[in-house]
Amino acid sequence: MVFPQPTCQISVFLENRAGIVADLCSALTEKKINIIGMTVLDTIDIGTLRLVVDDVKGAKNVLKEVGAAYVEVPVVTVRIPNSPGAFARIARKFSDAGINIEYMYATALSGMEASLGVFRVSDAQAALDIEISS
To answer: Is domain 10-72 in CATH 3.30.2130.10, yes or no?
Structure first.
């Protein structure tokens, strides 16, 4: 697979309370929707759950069923080798192209070859034109 790849992230706005993330993840599981990437940001009253899933349409239906507010956000995914300097090289390629990284999330376990980084950037189309070897 060639990276970066375009994808859609769903940002869900949730009450900041115990169990809300578990409830939403369970609702997605019941519809056989796989969560590929996820991060949760908190404020005092509201949390923002950022999701990348394998079935965006299905996830949006689940969110409508449970009455959750959400927005779709274009993001790009990048395979990041699990080695020192890998993120720096990717960040530099974006920077050299004049693309700002607004936020990103990724992780890899020790011994894994790579992780999948989800990037919200200032110009997703320009980011897709950058060659990033994995």
So the answer is: yes
